[in-house]
Amino acid sequence: MSRRLIVARRVLSGAGDSTATALAIDSGRVVGTGRPDDFATWAGPGTVETHLPEMVVSPGFVESHAHLLWMGQVSRLVDCSTPPNTTVADILSRVRAAAASRPAGTWIIGFHYDEGLLAERRPPTLDELTAAAPAHPVYITHNSGHLAITNRLALEMAGLRDGISTPGVTHGPDGRLTGLLREDPALDLVSRHLPVPTLDDKVHFIGEASQAALAVGTTAMTDAAMGLARPGATEADWAAYQAAEARGVLGVRTVCYARAPHAEAFVPAPYCTPWLQAGGVKLFADGSIQGHTGALSAPYHDSPQETGMLLYDVPTLTRVMEQHHKAGRQILIHCNGDAAIDVALDAFAAVLPPRPHPHRHRIEHAQMATRRQLERMEALGILPSFFVGHVHHYGDRHHDQYLGPARGSRISPVQEAVELGLLFSLHSDCPVTPLDPLLSMRVAVERKTQSGRTLGPTLRARAEAAFLAYTRWAAYLGLRESQVGSLEPGRWADFAVLDGNPLDWAPDGDNPPVRVQSTWVGGEERFRA
User: Fold this and answer.
1) Are 438 and 293 members of one domain?
2) Residue 52 above 90 pLDDT?
């Protein structure tokens, strides 16, 4: 591979060099950044020069929490999202069309319904889905991934009948099943019966999702919970990632975490190549605020009888964490509500020795973290990864409906983490929300909801922190800062070419959008707009 010199309007190294305009690459890795004259003696006759005088070069974005395989898979499912669907009738029409196009008994699987955006402010009912597809089992996942709606045949195939009491399987006032499933094990009871994609299918999904990631400047990805599809699927998902790497289909550098709710669950053996890395384990302490399953310390604003669902108590979680920690595994734990964060921090405190302890265990989403909880994270060495897109995608409903103005205004308190000197990352949780690092950074800076409301203006972060949380800091949270996340000597020459500078954004400014023009991996162009 020849040497290459990239000359641009600005090169953002991710390491504090704001004046560089040149990036030198050799054998796919960064030699250095600086001025073009700095590399005059280094560049020989065989050096390829690429001039981008109007562009800004950034480290490739590091997505610290998404689901790469699932990203590719959802493109094959019935689209129940809003838009394009605006009513329950729209979703039912798609279900009927799917039923008409496939043999009786074939599963109809949909994704991404959001009752809060539908005109009726409710999902389709069990009876409506049964009428739309009486001969087909139907299973449609909520956009959070923590709920699902089904028809009667799907419940019958799972052995669920009216009057049977199972946690998370909901019933109406008359005792009849509603078709709504909330969290595991309710979801698992039905999802274990869904058709299993083949290895080749999964490799294809990984390849498609890799290309989608490159299109938004993302060169390093994360599967934050292999095995989400069904119990026991983690090992099969890991085999698919290894096959995708072997076939040259895995187009982004990926670290995978095993869904391991029990100490005896499958976790890949240590594995690390330039393209694929076995990470630690993923646990779930609660569910989704949108689904009223995120665990709160005080009731939901719009549902005073509910405080959500805690999936562990402190003693049980402590035992699980202790086994994984002793095995040397990095622990990621999903916590949306403040009650769930307290449980996770109490368990971490029982497991961890006094600092320093370079474990880099993480709290994922940290949506309702209080300042006191962030202080505890800093004291324990726990790193939060914020799903800051909640502000944009759900902030209006959090403020007006789910949490109320006081709690809703302070979700994803990125700026407080900055003030406490706490390293963190930002993420999209794609396909829960679209993979769009630049949008997530801008949301952290502006805190604008979809309606244009500024949600918690005192919590707006500076652009540099948002940028680092999708580059250098995100790499640190994934234990791969020596390879990706910055354009420092020795790192992979993975970068995005942008038509603007995200470091120019200001919390109270008129910030123009920045778009990805091309994406490079190992010094080679892999995507061009």
Assistant:
1) yes
2) yes
Crossing angle, helix 234-246 and helix 199-214, to 10 degrees? Answer: 70
CA neighbours closer than 13 Å in the CB half-sphere of residue 203: 13
Do the bridges between strand 61-62 and strand 218-226 make them parallel or antiparallel, or are there none, so unpaired? parallel
Among 191, 211, 235, the domain-final residue is: 191
Beta strands (DSSP E) in 227-328 are 253-259, 276-284
Q: How far apart are CA 448 and CA 435, in angstroms?
A: 18
Note the pLDDT tens digit of each residue in 125-143: 999 999 999 999 999 999 9
Specify the pTM. 0.96
Whether 90 and 178 map to the same domain: the answer is yes
Residue 524 lies in a domain: yes
Q: pLDDT of 394-432, one tens digit each?
A: 999 999 999 999 999 999 999 999 999 999 999 999 999
Q: Phi and psi dihedrals of 426, rounded to 5?
A: -110, 150
**What tokens appear for 277 in the block?**
């890395």
- Residue 356, pLDDT score: 67
Among 444, 517, 437, CA closest to 471: 437
> Could you tell me if 352 and 381 are in contact, meaning their C-beta atoms sit under 8 angstroms apart?
yes
Shared domain for 317 and 362, answered yes or no, is yes
| Helix and strand element counts for the chain (H, E) | 16, 21
Residue 313: both structure tokens together? 């108590």
Asked whether the beta carbons of 462 and 22 are under 8 A apart, the reply is no
pLDDT score for 16: 83
- Mind giving me the DSSP string for 326-370? HTT--EEEEE-SHHHHHHHHHHHHHHPPSSP-TT--EEEE-TT--
- Would you give the DSSP letter of residue 486? S
The answer, yes or no, to whether the previous bond of 274 is cis (omega within 30 of 0) is: no
Q: Which domain holds residue 505?
A: 4-60+490-528
Residue type, 481: E
Domain boundary among 191, 213, 245: 191
The phi and psi torsions of 84 (rounded to 5 degrees) equal -85, -15
Cα dist. 343→145, 310, 339, 422 in Å? 22, 9, 6, 20
What is the CATH classification number for the domain harbouring 89? 3.10.310.70
Q: How long a stretch of residues is the chain?
A: 529
How deeply is 354 buried, as exposed, middle or buried, from its count of CB atoms within 10 A (0-12, 13-18, 19+)? Answer: exposed
Tokens of 309: 């669902």
Statement to judge: residues 317 and 420 lie in one domain = yes
The average pLDDT across 257-285 equals 94
In the numeric block, the tokens 């009849």 are attached to 176
In single-letter form, the type of residue at position 395 comes to G
**SS in 3 state form for 111-168?**
EEECHHHCCCCCCCCHHHHHHHCCCCCEEEEECCCCEEEECHHHHHHCCCCCCCCCCC
**Residue 237 · residue 70 · CB < 8 Å:** no
